[in-house]
């Protein structure tokens, strides 16, 4: 198996070098590539990325910012792996958890694996952010009669061709809800693995807002009323 790690990047000059190093320093049980999409950054991120040199890197650039969903779509088009997982460049997620996500797949127990953040105590957590995440996840559970714990998790691991087949249209953070809604509509239930998570504050660069939560609810409802795929 070959795993494509997809990293969308927008104005992360302070963290991108560390994010890439952490991702490539992990000992993976499979071959990996790191596909980075610089999504129109204007803060020097491009210069930092240009200085990186590793044969596992595949760097793609959007001249203008298009949003996370659009960046992932570009990364998916350029990826060559059998499986894919998304890893943000903001250091909130620990790439050391990725082998744990792979294990249920390698053991033959799952095809789609989500990293489940436990939202334990942490000084950077916003009460409303956590409640918003739980609200969106609860809405998905009710709409699709399922039980998942963390819809908005960045760590979504699945076959690359499966993601391509979902035809994700959301350009921004709404892609998280669209991916999950379309999987659930196909009766694909993600296998969940606990992961670590270090949230950063708005002052540190947190980009997602309450408007993204409202959009996620709309997308979940829209996908629920569509005919099942296949």
Verbal overview:
- This protein is an alpha/beta fold and 230 residues long.
- 38% of the residues lie in helices and 18% in strands.
- It has helices at 16-25, 45-50, 68-78, 98-106, 127-144, 160-166, 175-185, 210-225, and strands spanning 2-9, 31-39, 57-62, 83-86, 113-117, 156-159, 191-195.
- The model has no long low-confidence stretch (mean pLDDT 88).
**Tally of strands:** 7
The residue fraction in helices comes out at 25-40%
Average pLDDT across residues?
88
Shape, per Cα inertia axes: globular
Count the DSSP helices. 8
Order of helix and strand elements from N to C terminus: EHEHEHEHEHEHHEH
Largest sheet, in brief, is: 7 strands, mixed
Low-confidence blocks of residues: none
Beta-strand proportion: 15-25%
* Structure classification: alpha/beta
Kindly report how far apart the N and C termini lie: 26 Å
Ordered list of secondary-structure elements with their pairings:
Blueprint lengths: L1 E8 L6 H10 L5 E9 L5 H6 L6 E6 L5 H11 L4 E4 L11 H9 L6 E5 L9 H18 L11 E4 H7 L8 H11 L5 E5 L14 H16 L5
Helix pairs in contact: 5-8, 7-8
Could you name the key traits of this structure?
alpha/beta; seven-stranded mixed beta sheet; 38% helix; 8 helices; 230 residues; 7 strands
Could you write a compact summary of the structure shown?
With 230 residues, the protein is an alpha/beta fold. The protein is built from eight helices and seven strands. The protein has helices at 16-25, 45-50, 68-78, 98-106, 127-144, 160-166, 175-185, 210-225, and strands at residues 2-9, 31-39, 57-62, 83-86, 113-117, 156-159, 191-195.
């Amino acid at each position: 198996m070959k795993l494509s790690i997809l990293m969308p990047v927008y104005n992360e000059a302070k963290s991108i070098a560390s994010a890439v190093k952490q991702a490539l320093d992990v000992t993976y049980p499979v071959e990996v590539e790191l596909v980075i999409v610089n999504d129109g950054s204007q803060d020097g991120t491009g210069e930092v990325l240009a200085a990186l040199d590793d044969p596992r890197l595949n760097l793609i650039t959007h001249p203008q910012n298009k949003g996370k969903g659009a960046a992932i779509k570009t990364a998916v088009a350029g990826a060559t792996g059998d499986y894919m997982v998304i890893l943000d460049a903001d250091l909130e997620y620990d790439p050391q958890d990725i082998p744990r996500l792979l294990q249920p797949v390698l053991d033959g127990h799952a095809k789609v694996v989500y990293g489940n953040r436990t939202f334990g105590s942490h000084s950077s957590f916003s009460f409303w952010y956590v409640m918003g995440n739980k609200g969106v996840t609860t809405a998905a559970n009710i709409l699709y009669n399922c039980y998942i714990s963390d819809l908005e998790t960045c760590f979504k691991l699945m076959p690359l061709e499966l993601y391509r087949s979902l035809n994700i249209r959301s350009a921004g953070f709404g892609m998280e809800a669209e991916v999950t809604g379309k999987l659930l509509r196909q009766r694909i239930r993600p296998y969940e693995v606990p992961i670590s998570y270090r949230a950063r504050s708005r002052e540190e660069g947190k980009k997602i807002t309450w408007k993204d939560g409202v959009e996620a609810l709309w997308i979940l409802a829209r996908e629920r009323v569509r005919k099942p795929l296949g």
